[in-house]
Specification:
The protein is α+β, with helices and mostly antiparallel strands. The protein has five helices and seven strands; from the N terminus they run βαααβββαβαββ. Strand 6 and strand 7 form a beta hairpin.
């Protein structure tokens, strides 16, 4: 298994991989529809044109089994989406991606990483806690009218 920073050539595979969002039990159909638009080949090409966006993925052979993306802003990093192939869940894929990302960000002098999770996503909540993230707050009726928890982790 190998973690890589995504390049332009990886866009079609990444776009296809992010389709796993479709089967998420934690997001409304409106949320899924809108978020999937963000990961179309066309939109990913636009995002790759912005140096503040970052996509990483874990590959087994030539198959993507996990991906995480986010962006840099004002000395911090917002970790936006983490997606793991259903067969590989609970096998350390998300942890490997977050550990890789944290090491990269520390080397770059980024002092904080933050992200969100749905309040109902118990697996994500447990994983973030185990990775040392602390809860900032719960936001009711937020994105797409759903409840979210904001998390942070100080890196330096």
């Amino acid at each position: 298994m190998k973690i890589q920073i995504a390049k332009l050539k990886d866009i079609p595979r990444l776009s296809g991989f992010y389709q796993f969002i479709r089967s998420s039990p934690y997001y409304s159909q409106a949320a899924i529809k809108e978020e999937l638009k963000r990961f179309s080949v066309k939109n990913l090409k636009k995002q790759f044109g912005n140096k503040d966006n970052l996509y990483i993925f874990l590959e087994e052979g030539d198959k993507i089994i996990g991906a995480r993306n986010g962006y840099y802003e004002a000395g911090i990093f917002w970790s936006d989406w983490g997606v793991v192939h259903p067969f590989y869940r609970r096998k350390g894929v998300s942890r490997a991606l977050m550990t890789f990302l944290e090491k990269k960000l520390k080397k770059e002098g980024i002092h904080k990483m933050w992200c969100d999770s749905r309040t109902t996503n118990k697996e994500s909540i447990a994983a973030l806690k185990s990775l040392g993230f602390e809860k900032i707050t719960t936001i009711k009726n937020h994105w797409y009218g759903q409840d979210f928890i904001l998390w942070q982790k100080l890196l330096n």
